[in-house]
Amino acid sequence: MSPLAENSGPDIIAAVIGLGSMGLGMAQSMKRAGLDVVGYDITPAAVDRFVADGGRGAATPAAAAKDADIVVSVVVNGAQTEAVLFGPQGVANAMKPGAVFISSATMDPAVARDLAQRTEALGLHYLDAPISGGAAKAARGELTIMASGSRQAFDTARPGLDAMAAKVYELGDEAGKGAAFKMINQLLAGVHIAAACEAITFAAKQGLDLDKVYEVITASAGNSWMFENRVPHVLAGDYTPLSSIEIFVKDLGIVQDMARSERYPVPLAAAALQMYLAASGAGMGRDDDSSLARLYAKLSGAELPSSTKEPQSL
Amino acid sequence: MSPLAENSGPDIIAAVIGLGSMGLGMAQSMKRAGLDVVGYDITPAAVDRFVADGGRGAATPAAAAKDADIVVSVVVNGAQTEAVLFGPQGVANAMKPGAVFISSATMDPAVARDLAQRTEALGLHYLDAPISGGAAKAARGELTIMASGSRQAFDTARPGLDAMAAKVYELGDEAGKGAAFKMINQLLAGVHIAAACEAITFAAKQGLDLDKVYEVITASAGNSWMFENRVPHVLAGDYTPLSSIEIFVKDLGIVQDMARSERYPVPLAAAALQMYLAASGAGMGRDDDSSLARLYAKLSGAELPSSTKEPQSL
């Protein structure tokens, strides 16, 4: 792609609302694929960073969205997504007819359905498209997207999806399915992190060789993606947040709210949520989610490897 | 190996106590490797099956063990292992000096340490060697063994270990370490099965396409070895026991007892244990452990795929 391509009038304009570690990478991936990308963030410095990197900035969500074919919302939850759409200077009344709103926040499927309905009532398309993969994959355009929405929503979103994702699951023609799949994944991920921390700290309490525990478990039936990914943080004593305790306070909270409303019991997710709440209450909310291991250690006197880095909040 | 080798006086004699689906396969694997194998089981028909297959049978544990270099105990728990060693016609007083007792049952590490001490006091060696891998791997001599014990115990056991296992982890020179590693694995495995059943049935409750859920989750961060292995039973509606609910009633019970005694909290394992107990109480104790999904379905009205086979206990 010639460096001039962006200035020579590309056909597709994309707006990205939310230029955090995920949104910035997604904006850059779309720019790299030749889309004309306008970014907005509530923090002006985040917009400046995108502009310094060659992107276009906007002063409000509405200004970013007004000429866009594709608006990608990369905020934290359903409430923020609603504000991006319908709040003061929100995008919904600024978007042109037939444009698509891609919602990537993790939220209750009922909220996704409601937002989709209100967005579609304005003649816009809505793609319910939670993401998974972390900041590095966002920057490389290699996210996994769990998406549902109308055929027109998918078709209009396609150039953006192709630029941002290595894999797009098409999970149905109605908003809410993507959100529901994401919540099933978050239920499992949140429980598995808690189980990994419960187990590795129990091994420490018994004086086992933790490196050997990692070697044996990752080759055994007790393994999980999260055990394999998070336990190395515990072994290194490094709780620098890659994904924080607060993410699972939020996501398992959504799981619990959904389950309560559907009269479905989730004893495993409920037990895990209590541990994330306890870790947050103990001051570790912004630390890596593997900090649950430090919580188990505090509760039991187990000794975990200590970091060679500066101490975290505990 | 010539078929005559067994009759021409092989150097090493092994006794296997407990010829269930695991013990029979382990006995056959050692026989295939050229050891002279004598089998005993509390059920005479199990001994007959081994004899019909070309093995040697014995009428008591003591009779099986009296000339053996290696005695492999393949029973259910610590109490049965103690009975094999020290009960009426137990092997401990029949074994020759310098022979090794290989204990493969899953048990509390404290029990393993006690049995080892009492066995070693008689001039015998003790290898704490829990197994993992299932009946098919037992039959192929491809188990994973998590072993600890003295150097002499390992050396004497080696021909048997090599015949039975694809991988032997050497986890320390004292009995109890092998048991402790196995319990860490069982904590994780038991929690992950419960989480898998909680999640897949929650997906069913929401009307998601369960085959698609399996596809998405096994490619995502919510995956676990157990989700990947057990959820297909739920998708097929087939709860024929490969590993039963009662196994985790037992193993998470041991985890809970260990944790209580060490003043270590295990909220995830405790929540999972309650679900196994509920499934057992509801009549599914001898069904496959993926029957937890049927329990969640009963509790919530979710509809899971039904089997094309005969109905199980529910």
UniProtKB/TrEMBL annotation, chains A, B:
<comment type="similarity">
    <text>Belongs to the HIBADH-related family. L-threonate dehydrogenase subfamily.</text>
</comment>
<keyword id="KW-0119">Carbohydrate metabolism</keyword>
<dbReference type="InterPro" id="IPR050006">
    <property type="entry name" value="LtnD"/>
</dbReference>
<dbReference type="InterPro" id="IPR006115">
    <property type="entry name" value="6PGDH_NADP-bd"/>
</dbReference>
<feature type="domain" description="6-phosphogluconate dehydrogenase NADP-binding">
    <location>
        <begin position="15"/>
        <end position="172"/>
    </location>
</feature>
<keyword id="KW-0560">Oxidoreductase</keyword>
<dbReference type="InterPro" id="IPR008927">
    <property type="entry name" value="6-PGluconate_DH-like_C_sf"/>
</dbReference>
<feature type="active site">
    <location>
        <position position="182"/>
    </location>
</feature>
<dbReference type="InterPro" id="IPR029154">
    <property type="entry name" value="HIBADH-like_NADP-bd"/>
</dbReference>
<keyword id="KW-0521">NADP</keyword>
<dbReference type="Pfam" id="PF14833">
    <property type="entry name" value="NAD_binding_11"/>
</dbReference>
<dbReference type="InterPro" id="IPR013328">
    <property type="entry name" value="6PGD_dom2"/>
</dbReference>
<dbReference type="GO" id="GO:0050661">
    <property type="term" value="F:NADP binding"/>
</dbReference>
<dbReference type="Pfam" id="PF03446">
    <property type="entry name" value="NAD_binding_2"/>
</dbReference>
<dbReference type="InterPro" id="IPR002204">
    <property type="entry name" value="3-OH-isobutyrate_DH-rel_CS"/>
</dbReference>
<dbReference type="InterPro" id="IPR015815">
    <property type="entry name" value="HIBADH-related"/>
</dbReference>
<dbReference type="InterPro" id="IPR036291">
    <property type="entry name" value="NAD(P)-bd_dom_sf"/>
</dbReference>
<dbReference type="GO" id="GO:0016616">
    <property type="term" value="F:oxidoreductase activity, acting on the CH-OH group of donors, NAD or NADP as acceptor"/>
</dbReference>
<dbReference type="GO" id="GO:0016054">
    <property type="term" value="P:organic acid catabolic process"/>
</dbReference>
<keyword id="KW-0520">NAD</keyword>
<dbReference type="GO" id="GO:0051287">
    <property type="term" value="F:NAD binding"/>
</dbReference>
<feature type="domain" description="3-hydroxyisobutyrate dehydrogenase-like NAD-binding">
    <location>
        <begin position="176"/>
        <end position="296"/>
    </location>
</feature>
<protein>
    <recommendedName>
        <fullName>L-threonate dehydrogenase</fullName>
        <ecNumber>1.1.1.411</ecNumber>
    </recommendedName>
</protein>
<comment type="function">
    <text>Catalyzes oxidation of L-threonate to 2-oxo-tetronate. Can use either NAD(+) or NADP(+) as cosubstrate, with a preference for NAD(+).</text>
</comment>
